[in-house]
TrEMBL record:
Stored PANTHER family: GLYCEROPHOSPHODIESTER PHOSPHODIESTERASE, CYTOPLASMIC (PTHR46211:SF1), GLYCEROPHOSPHORYL DIESTER PHOSPHODIESTERASE (PTHR46211)
GO MF annotation, one: phosphoric diester hydrolase activity
Tree of life domain: Bacteria
Gene Ontology terms: biological process: lipid metabolic process
SUPFAM superfamilies registered for this protein in UniProt: PLC-like phosphodiesterases
Any Pfam family matching the protein: GDPD
Provenance organism: uncultured Thermomicrobiales bacterium
PROSITE patterns assigned to the protein according to its UniProt record, in alphabetical order: GP_PDE
Record protein name field: GP-PDE domain-containing protein
Domain spans labelled GP-PDE: 10-249
Signal peptide (UniProt feature, chain positions): none
Length: 261
């Protein structure tokens, strides 16, 4: 498939901006991603206690006094005390200013209505993609926006497993995903797969593409991993080092002729 965003075989997505340059999900990180020329900008979204769509990855945050608290139990102001660089989704839309489409990762269920309202308010339905690990969230968003691009995120177990167990877990996951994922995508009513790069095989990419869906690999950072990921033929790679990924992607494109000439 050729990207409708970049016209290339593989887009480069800035994972929470460009954390290699600045704190993830911060204004500096997102501006760095735009500066290096990403094709898409990815962010994480959670809901604060007072209804703000805050850009935070983890479910908890350490407060100034050292105690951990759930993101959803704190107000926007309290979260700002704990995370001075904290942004809300409205901030990111203003920062990006239409320079690149957004990939808005919804980190949990229960606030689909707030996400849908923000998408409507900013008229993002035709350009944004919205991934989640939660099938119920994707189905609710599909009901709200029949044409919205949704992504099912999976394969985290491969990257999160203890190092000694990763080879065995990776082998098992890679063996079963090509059969399971097309069914899972249909059940979630998703258009795209977001999957850990170590869980991917050519068979999985082929199965997803044959189902008419797109494949996005996360989080691909080292030169070795980026080169391997590009060779698999995904629709995008999501990276903390988008500058490196762009250079290697462009080198790869220069060596491999496009099927469209």
């Amino acid at each position: 498939m050729v990207s409708q965003v970049s016209g290339r075989q593989t887009d480069v997505v800035g994972h929470r901006g460009a954390p290699a340059f600045a704190r993830a999900n911060s204004e500096a990180s997102f501006r760095a991603a735009l500066e290096v020329g990403v094709d898409r900008v990815e962010c994480d979204v959670r809901l604060s206690a007072d209804g703000a769509l805050v850009l935070v990855h983890d479910a908890t945050v350490e407060m100034p006094d050292g105690t951990p608290n759930a993101i959803g139990s704190l107000t926007h102001a309290q979260l700002r005390d704990a995370i001075p660089s904290l942004l809300v989704l409205d901030d990111l839309v203003e920062i990006v200013g239409g320079q690149a489409p957004l990939m808005v990762d919804v980190k949990g269920p229960g606030y689909e209505a707030e996400v849908a309202a923000a998408i409507r308010r900013h008229r993002l339905a035709e350009t944004a993609s919205v991934p989640s690990t939660w099938v119920v969230t994707l189905r609710r968003l599909r009901a709200a926006f029949p044409g919205l691009r949704l992504g099912l995120s999976t394969g985290h177990i491969v990257g999160g497993a203890p190092h000694a167990l990763r080879p065995a877990i990776g082998t098992t996951v890679r063996a079963v995903l090509p059969k399971l994922i097309p069914v899972a995508l249909a059940a979630a009513r998703a258009d795209e797969l977001m999957v850990h790069h170590r869980a991917v095989t050519p068979a999985l990419v082929d199965a997803v593409h044959r189902a008419g869906k797109k494949v996005n690999l996360f989080t691909v950072d080292s030169e070795e991993d980026i080169r391997r990921a590009l060779a698999l033929g995904p629709d995008s790679i999501i990276s903390n080092h988008p500058d490196r990924a762009i250079v290697l992607r462009d080198e790869y494109d220069a060596r491999i002729p496009s099927p469209n000439g």
